[in-house]
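Protein in question kept underneath.
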Amino acid sequence: MVPRHALAFLLGILCVECCGGLDIVTRLVPWLVAGAAIAWLLGTKITASWTAGVLWALVRACVLLNQQLPPTLEGTDWLVRGDVISIPAAQNRQVRFDFAPEPQPGLPGRLQLSWFDTSITPQATEHWQLRVRLRVPRGFANPGGFDYEGALFRSGVGATGYVRTSEDNHYLSERWRDYPILALRAAIARRIGDALRDDTASGIVAGLAVGATEQITTDQWQVFTATGTTHLIAISGLHVTMVAAIVMLLVRRLWRWPATRVPLTCQADVAALAGALAAAAYALLAGFSVPTQRTLAMLIVGLASQCLRRAQPASHVLSLALFAVLLLDPHAALSAGFWLSFVAVAVILALLGGSEARPHPLRAFLATQRVVSLALLPATLLLFGTVSLIAPIANLVAIPAFSGVLVPLTLLGTLLLGCAPALAKWLFALDGWCVHLLWALLERAASIPSALVHLPAPTTLGWLLLVFAVLVALCPLPWGARWPPLLLVPVLIASPSRMSAGDFTLTVLDVGQGLAAVVRTRSHVLLFDAGPRFRNTRSAGELAVVPYLGHVGVRHIDLLVISHADADHSGGVSAVERLVSTREIRLGGHVAGLLAPAADCTRGEAWTWDDVHFEFLSPGGSERWSRNDGSCVLEISNATSRALLTGDIEAGSEQRIAALGLWSTVDAIVVPHHGSASSSSAALVDAVAARYAIVSAGAHNRWHFPHAAVVARWCRAGAEVINTADWGAITLEFAAHSGLREARSQRLERPHYWSPVTPRAGRSLCAEVPAPGT
């Protein structure tokens, strides 16, 4: 019964976590409580378990939502005093850390702050006074993209922001006594950094020692992802189990009491207690991630049953661990680590744990790798949209290297820091040398073409068929019956184009203050700009464009257009070029030298893909223009519809194109320069008479785009003005025969109760424009 109750509890939590809003669930609470009480009295305890999961998730969700920054206070400055409650991540003169401020009305209890262009690095557990500007936690909303808002919500962050330049910023005191575990983790990470003054090794060793992965670079994470070895850098259940086993063995070996006076069973009980305490200490030192929670719960249940002489089935142990993790944090049910961890252990127990025979260790290791790789394929595809084709081979080398060499050296060096620091430093140096050897292999493996494959989002039926095919392959059937279903995997997860000749789709991605738009016909893809690059060395190309292309099944870009050189349009291009093959490139004004080989956008250049016509309207080859006015302007049309991409052109270029008679009536336009007052002149607005005017701008951006006068001008011309800051990614479908369909909003189609309140999602900004004369 325990497994069924655990699954019912999990299902109840997921019913809340997958809701777009909590209003319906909240109204049903009295009925749920009454139904659970009746079910309990009638003996239907599974229903009660499900209800308990719903109520527990609802309570936790309401608590976290009440701790978020009120939207009315967004963009305001605060003078706060508080403690640094994370190990800061410092890269490129930028420091990011979590901060627990002293209570103030409306101020959340946990902030995530960035301090730009500073040589100061606050340390964990320090008490500071800072002047900060805060905003509601916000991330991109794109198909296939990472849910950054959900990650912040699950970690309890109520607001994000940055430290402002001010004389009020200064260190106050040290608070390590209030955070002893964090202080110990930070001290160990610093000692490792001092011993290994090398970015390649120090971040990885610190991650293995105390779960401090803040110094692992973006490039290193990409190598881990491409090789399918990310699970090794996170302190996993294998590492926690190893610590418990080593401590238990040492306790048994160092036991000095005569066996005649102390029974062996007592020795075993003391060893089990010592192993459980060591595992708990290591899990806390590692940051208490979901895999360590699961392993610790399973160890405690298993060792407790051993001490009580009451053997428990493996399924009961795993179920109790599931209960424990969800009771600690019901929102863990939405994390990738939760599913990968529990699915992997469940499959190993189900398929490999019941055999009484003891196979050769190498054979057991290979069998485990095969089973886990296959079992996690559906979950990996659903959670990440990617599959590492070289992961099974890379893990054959990486798992023994980490578990047999790197982790033992790291743990031994960590233990010796207090009593033999010189020996600990030597062990960390040896550890770093081993990391370099392994890293050379992983980098070479990650550089293999198609090492990491981005796959299209499967349909529900396709994903269920994939699960069925994997289950058949894992069943104890004859070899010839197990593998044929897997040959259908490419067909099951394929997402064939439903567009006909003449159809095209325009998707303006949510990239904050910048632009990235994807145009797709039946068999071709054009990317117009690649979004901005951020100060943490990542870019919208990596975080928004590439995941979207993978989500819709795009393997290559036929034409990449970079409208002009501004960083909010061209910053993500290097990531796109690195991760997606590109056949041709066109560049606008002042972009020369950014990409090669490439040609310039030239007025009059035209081509046709799948009965869809493309033509550049600007810039002209002999004209002189400013940086923005040199933007590429692209018109896309079919038999019934027309769309216009304008980059950052301003009034001068708009009037020049109008004088040439090149503006035509369009159904949709990406508003020039994000709605700047220097663009969207009457020469453009009146000529195109657009149905949709799409603004690609960041929420609460410092330039206050789109400008109110620009919005009013488009509205008076009859356009619906919509903004990616409110809608998330905006998708327009242009059918060859029926014309433009209604615009689609990612925030409306995939709502989450933890996302910022966006009352303008699905609405035009024209609703807020006062009528003439008022």
Notes: The longest strand covers residues 126-135. The first helix runs from residue 2 to 17. The mean pLDDT is 87.
